[in-house]
Specification:
heterodimer; A: about 350 residues; mainly alpha; Ammonium transporter fold; 14 helices; globular; B: about 220 residues; 9 helices; about 0% strand
């Protein structure tokens, strides 16, 4: 703020401005996702890139289509639609037909965000709404995983990617179980170094634990997310799986494996921390995170699916208004009940 | 005068079909609406059964309206409705046992369909037999139309077929969610959205037209 005469500064209130804008926060999250996204492209090649593009196109085009003309520019430029599409794409298997990824993006924005009234009004995390829809609608395609490759097979496209809309192609047979699937159904461990680097099968953006942690640390440093949510999720998962591991080391995975495998890291840092659908009170954030951790472990160990992060977050999203209501801080100078 | 009367009859019929559609506008009878519309055939069977029960009970309630004591009118309506539901239940069981088996408990549950009871209380017990039957025909057609719309959308997406005839060939990827309960809720919600949008658009156009005429 510079004026000609430093002694005379005429300016209307507000004089203090906060740096944080929607666009700025979205850009920070995008930047934090960049390493994991690049790792996804490294391991899953062109297929990964196309699936990401399809889901981003699905969300942006839906946002464009259902927004009134005068608001389009602003709504599209704040980057939230792009971010939702990218987050959804990162949680899809790389061999998914592109038209399914497109529909997922459209459902994320349409049913996950716009139908509630737009940005900031939704009860559930939009990207996870899209993913839950896809998993319930196309269970076969959504649970067919392909092994991670390297840059050498970048241009090896999966035949199933290019299925015509509403059709499917016979899967090409090269499929691989995720570490969680191996653990659940075959009691087979995956080495921690592979889980950290991401040289495993899984969703496009969930495999590389190290890079996801890097992005998470960046967001914590920039204070775009509440540190209590990832901390409570990771701590509760670690505590609970330690108990199970001590009871039966041969049947249940250890705490480190549980944290690094599957989509726990991407869920804890990027999905659960969505400021719209998570509690705003500090105590509420702890309850929310612990609830997610508890549900994740319960679904993984006792449920039918090997992975439960998505359902855990969606369920706790539904409980968010209630948590916020019961964790209102005491009004200063009033009685204990906050009245 | 005669012309006015005819218009009335037409209005009573068309209101159930479109303007006051029991499902898309009044949002009544949701239980069978969501439960048995996983295929077009089931939806049609359910709609047909409800159609018969509604028209027959409206006719009977309207004919008997001056003999039904006010204090016990609801229970009387229920008994009349239950009679026709029993007739429908046995008829379906005898004629189309497979569909009857699929509809299961939802045929007896027509007794508790609030749309039917609502028409008796709100219309049949206060109007002439002729108007009551016309109204019941309109409402029942509206209900049948809504069930069929939901059932066919769900069957086309969920199995790639309509009335069991495949539409898209063997490579169609079925939308599994559509034949499960969540698909019913989703489709119903989206259809409601669509009908409200059409209605709003029509009202807006009408308002614009009126404005244009006034100026």
């Amino acid at each position: 703020m510079s004026t000609e005469d430093p002694r005379l500064l005429l300016q209307a209130a507000p004089l203090l401005k906060q740096q944080l804008t929607t666009r700025g926060a979205m850009l920070d999250v995008l930047l934090a996702l960049l390493p994991a996204t690049l790792a996804g492209l490294w391991f899953f090649g062109l297929s990964g890139l196309l699936v990401l593009t399809a889901s981003i196109l699905g969300s942006i085009m839906t946002e464009w289509f259902f927004t009134p003309e005068e608001a389009r520019r602003q709504h599209l430029l704040d980057g939230s639609g792009f971010l939702t599409g990218l987050l959804l794409g990162l949680t899809l298997p790389p061999s998914l037909p592109l038209w399914m990824a497109f529909i997922g993006g459209a459902v994320s924005i349409g049913l996950g965000k716009l139908i509630w009234g737009g940005l900031g009004q939704n009860l559930f995390n939009p990207a996870l709404v899209g993913r839950a829809f896809l998993l319930a609608t196309f269970p076969n395609a959504m649970t067919t995983w392909s092994p991670a490759g390297g840059p050498a097979d970048f241009f090896q496209l999966h035949a199933s990617n290019l299925a015509l809309p509403f059709m499917h192609v016979e899967y090409d047979g090269v499929s691989a179980a995720t570490p969680l699937g191996l653990m659940k159904f075959e009691y087979q461990d995956t080495s921690l170094s592979n889980l950290l680097i991401g040289n495993i099968s899984g969703c496009i953006g969930e495999t590389s634990g190290l890079l996801l942690l890097l992005g998470g640390a960046y967001m914590l440093w920039r204070r775009v997310i509440d540190w209590r949510i990832p901390a409570s999720i990771l701590l509760s998962v670690a505590a609970l799986t330690t108990v199970f591991y001590l009871v039966g080391p041969d049947r249940y995975p250890g705490p480190l494996f549980s944290i690094l495998a599957g989509s726990l890291l991407i869920g804890a840092f990027y999905m659960a921390t969505d400021p719209v659908s998570s509690p705003i009170t500090p105590r509420g954030a702890w309850i929310f995170g612990i609830g997610i951790g508890l549900l994740v472990v319960l679904i993984r160990i006792f449920g039918g699916f090997p992975e439960g992060v998505m359902y855990a977050i969606l369920l706790m999203n539904a409980a968010t208004p209630l948590i916020d209501r019961y964790t209102q801080p005491r009004v200063f100078g009033r009685g204990g009940a906050g009245r | 005068m005669v012309r006015k009367k005819q218009e009335d009859v037409y209005q009573e019929f068309i209101k159930g079909l479109w303007r006051d559609n029991p499902v898309f506008v009044q949002v009544l009878g949701m239980c069978p609406m969501l439960a048995v519309t996983n295929s077009a055939v089931n939806a049609l069977a359910m709609g047909g059964a409800t159609f018969f029960v509604l028209v027959a009970s409206s006719f009977l309630v309207s004919s008997l309206k001056s003999w039904i004591p006010k204090q016990v009118r609801i229970s009387t309506y229920i008994i009349i409705i239950a009679t026709f539901v029993t007739v429908t239940d046995f008829t379906l069981e005898a004629l189309v046992p497979t569909i009857h088996k699929e509809l299961g408990a939802f045929i007896p549950l027509i007794v508790a369909n609030c749309m039917i009871l609502g028409r008796q209380e709100a219309f049949a017990s206060r109007n002439s037999v002729k108007l009551a039957v016309i109204d019941a025909l309109g409402m029942a057609s509206g209900f049948l139309f809504a069930l069929f719309a939901l059932g066919s959308v769900r069957e086309i997406l969920g199995e790639g077929a309509l009335f069991g005839v495949p539409l898209f060939g063997p490579h169609f990827e079925p939308w599994v969610i559509m034949i499960l309960p969540p698909g019913g809720f989703l489709t119903l919600g989206l259809l409601l959205l669509f009908f409200n949008w059409v209605k709003e658009r029509k009202d807006r156009l009408a308002a614009q037209l009126a404005e244009g005429e006034a100026s």
